[in-house]
Write a structure and sequence with these properties.
360 residues; alpha/beta; Beta-Lactamase; 2 domains; 7-stranded mixed sheet; 6-stranded antiparallel sheet; globular
């Protein structure tokens, strides 16, 4: 019996990428396993296996992606990152490619173009009205630090991009600079700087230099350590407007993280404008299928009562109780329950995102 003809790898990769665009996937994974390779698409935040191939074809797929991203195909022992262009329907899309050696071979991950998925305007994000009101207020302010929290893939960068666009539309003459790792997409009117975590241009070094570039609005991809946190807080205290992300499960948790990083309570209470904590929940259509995602958010603005609690070193529960009395306050659970009541999602999805204990 004649062996089956192996697929044309160039055509296979092109078809897979085109299918990823068509399905509005955010990522493509080429995953090596003991049995071969699996191709997976991340759609609405969840990975779905779309094809399986043997080791030979799988390695060829990774090799083709490396060629397209101009990576070193003879280096199989080190991580590599690159970019490639994909012509689709008369436009050129820019994709990021990352490869990593594993025990079963090279693993490849392709980040699909953010502009295909991300809304660009603040009013198009679908955020709850209290959160939108807080973001609009920050866009009109002239100083302070806005923190956006949430797990990876919760839409933090999308929110920040839309906020920066809003600021530029309100005040076109402002100098706006962002530090990102990596840059997800171009934002018109914003000077975007890509920071390499293992390169010479570190967050700390770039942020210190940025402050000498006469910026009025700063955006940081993430506050990761005490040094960066200190520089960011000092920038906010010195009259800059600054928006950043921070890994924390709640607004009060973000305040606690800053204090744990060595920021004095009086600095936190003076520098922070407000905190937005958000998640993304899959939208359910009339047919009962999940398609697309909608955000939920919880917002805490710094007011006199919260400042007083921070200065008095109140515990997390005490600060949360004070925040819950703010006008328009809405917890993540309340925001999720509102979506269920509107028929936009279901309780199973809420439980998946927030957890069984939080969703009760």
């Amino acid at each position: 019996m004649k062996a089956p003809t192996p697929p044309d790898v160039r055509e296979l990769v092109d078809r897979t990428l085109a299918d990823a665009v068509k399905q509005r996937a955010s990522d493509l994974h080429v995953e090596p396993t003991a049995q071969g390779y699996e191709l997976r698409l991340r759609i609405d935040g969840l990975l779905q296996t779309i094809a399986k191939y043997d080791q030979t074809i799988g390695r060829s797929i990774v090799g083709r992606l490396m060629v397209m991203a101009q990576l070193l195909t003879y280096r199989l022992d080190v991580p590599q990152e690159g970019r490639m262009e994909l012509p689709v329907e008369g436009q050129t899309l820019h994709l990021r490619v990352s490869v990593m050696p594993t025990t079963h071979g090279l693993r490849a991950a392709v980040r699909m173009p953010a502009e295909l998925l991300q809304p660009k305007a603040l009013d198009d994000l679908g955020l709850p009205e209290p959160t939108l009101a807080a973001l609009r207020s920050f866009a009109r302010s002239d100083s302070g630090m806005l923190i956006v929290t949430g797990p990876a893939g919760s839409g933090k960068t999308t929110t920040i991009y839309a906020l920066l666009a809003q600021i530029k539309s309100l005040q076109p003459g402002l100098s706006v600079i962002s530090l990102e790792d990596p840059v997800e997409r171009d934002v018109p009117g914003v000077t975007q700087i890509e920071v390499k975590p293992f390169g010479e241009l570190t967050y700390e070094r770039a942020l210190r230099s940025m402050l000498r570039q006469d910026p009025q609005v700063l955006a940081l991809g993430e506050i990761r350590d005490a040094t960066t946190a200190s520089i960011a807080v000092q920038a906010a205290l010195s009259g800059h407007r600054l928006v950043c992300t921070l890994h924390a499960s709640s607004p009060v948790g973000a305040l606690a993280r800053l204090v744990e990083m060595g920021i004095e309570p009086y600095q936190v209470s003076s520098a922070v404008f407000g905190i937005v904590s958000q998640r993304l929940i899959r939208r359910r259509d009339a047919a009962g299928a999940y398609r697309g995602r909608v955000p939920i958010a919880q917002t805490m603005l710094m007011d006199a009562a919260i400042r007083k609690a921070i200065l008095e070193k109140a515990d997390t529960q005490g600060v949360e109780q004070i925040a819950s009395r703010q006008p328009g306050f809405q917890s993540l659970q309340a925001a999720a329950e509102a979506l269920v009541a509107q028929g936009l999602t279901d309780q199973a999805e809420v439980n998946r995102v927030l957890g069984q204990a939080d969703a009760r």
